[in-house]
Amino acid sequence: MTTPLHETTLASKPSGDVLAIRGGRPLHGRVDVKGAKNLATKAMVATLLGETASTLRDVPDLSDVAVVRSLLEVHGVRVTEGDEPGALVFDPSDVESAHFEEIDAHAGASRIPILFCGPLLHRLGQAFIPDLGGCRIGDRPIDFHLDALRKFGAVVEKLPSGIRLSAPNGLKGANIHLPYPSVGATEQVLLTAVRAQGQTELRNAAIEPEIMDLIAVLQKMGAIISYEPNRVILIEGVETLRGYDHRSIFDRNEAASWACAALATDGEIFVGGAKQQEMLTFLNVFRKAGGWFDVREDGILFRRDGELKPVIVETDVHPGFMTDWQQPLVVALTQAPGRSVVHETVYENRMGFTAALVKMGADIVVHPHGLQDGPRRVARRDLEQAAVITGPTPLHGADIVVPDLRGGYSHVIAALTATGESKVSGVDILSRGYEKFLDKLTALGADFDVIG
Ligand code: EPZ
Asked: What is the pLDDT of residue 104?
């Protein structure tokens, strides 16, 4: 039986959602983006470091947020609704050790648990981190995290079901040079160094806007953090931190996704809450690909500017073109006349989603070891992949299965761009990164039913 759309939100359905999507209808209307998943979840972990309660505002209703909330609760943090919709209050006064089994049961399919290491070591002297989940987009090792934690003085013990950490002599500031500007490892260092004894110097740090927002959160808590323009972050450890009151930075990944949906379906979408400054690189590529946008006080309006154009894009760490932006863009590029190339330089397995687009009629050739030809801005990494997209190719409906968060979004957008009906399975994974996804699709005039 078909579920009425207004009764359905992805975040409230556990798993196995299947959509029947009838495409070929441009998306029109307004969607609002809230706090960034990739800040909110980290700022929630930071509440463990404070002596008093913290308030986080604009917290998105996502399954990753629910995972972090329940992990905090398992450790004794009291989480309650705040004084406005979307605000959560975290009271860490009764933080306590949790049992392995409990932590494991609440860790879900998320990678955020690894960031509990530093705060739990400071609070409790030990931490247990279960095997990590997250999108299957590459090996996603945690060696940078563990190497950094060891430099702070943590003892890391590998167990069959995860890792156990202890800090018999406390945590001390360290000099750390990351082999790659990893977002997670930079956050790991920040969350550990703020209360470590002495100074920490972090080189080759990631400087994504969400990291800058996390630094702002930590500074509100009493941390002393400065940074230099060359990816160097300096942290002077302090003995105690207090709670914070903070409104999360907007979700620029979600904003870019809806912008690409307007581009692919030839529609017009106003993304409320989107800001230009954090999206400069995306907006440049969007414009080069034939997109038009108007930056307004309360958001950005996106649509096409005549015919689409092929582009050559390299994903990179900030301030480069984010790896999370390429999947929805690729759908639009299937409709651009000519040859586009997307070089994926951050993850080694982030082109798997293109197989479904090919099934729908797209002409995409994936080079699993990247393309050697032509000058490149980003130095080649061993794990690089490249997709060559030749368009325009009309897309037709097909039965497809969502592979991961951003790839899954691109599948839905491809189905909305295609003529005929598509059956898209496993869309519940989108609840990890897109709040009220089905409601937003409905608001934009998408023609679909929830069939499973
Ligand atoms: C964050 O992942 C985001 N996730 C990802 O968003 C995002 O794609 C990524 O940063 C890049 O911007 C969250 O914030 C929860 P990394 P993270 O550490 O921190 C390698 C989404 O869809 N690496 O910057 O896990 C790694 O394999 C998600 O919202 C190591 O080799 O990414 C990758 O090749 C998906 N060893 C590269 O670094 C390590 O110890 C970048 O990873 C850590 C990372």
From this structure: 79
